[in-house]
Design brief:
Layout lengths: L2 E10 L3 H21 L8 H13 L1 H4 L3 E7 L4 E3 L7 E12 L5 E2 L1
Parallel strand pairs: 1-4
Antiparallel strand pairs: 1-5, 2-3, 2-4
Length: 106
Amino acid sequence: MSESEVIDIAVSESEATSISETASRIVNETKSFAKRYNTNMPFDPQKVEEDLIIFLTKRKKVNLTKLRVTILEDGNVGFGDTIEGNRKADLIFRINYKPHGGFHAR
């Protein structure tokens, strides 16, 4: 049976810093999550952070409101809902966009 964790993140539409901080937090939480399951991330964290900044900035086109990170039983890490293989653990980021205000993450 797999385990799941959820992290709620609120992004302010008015602050570009919020988007950068949010992308950085997602990458750092993902690295920490993978480390807890003795799994190395098979991707470049800086590239993922840059991609997330683009997705968060272009949110009206891509509608990024949830991101699932999965640790598979074979030790791989996957992003998204269409993962092949048995899931060992999931980390789910729920992203809410706020029209005003600053960065708030729980």
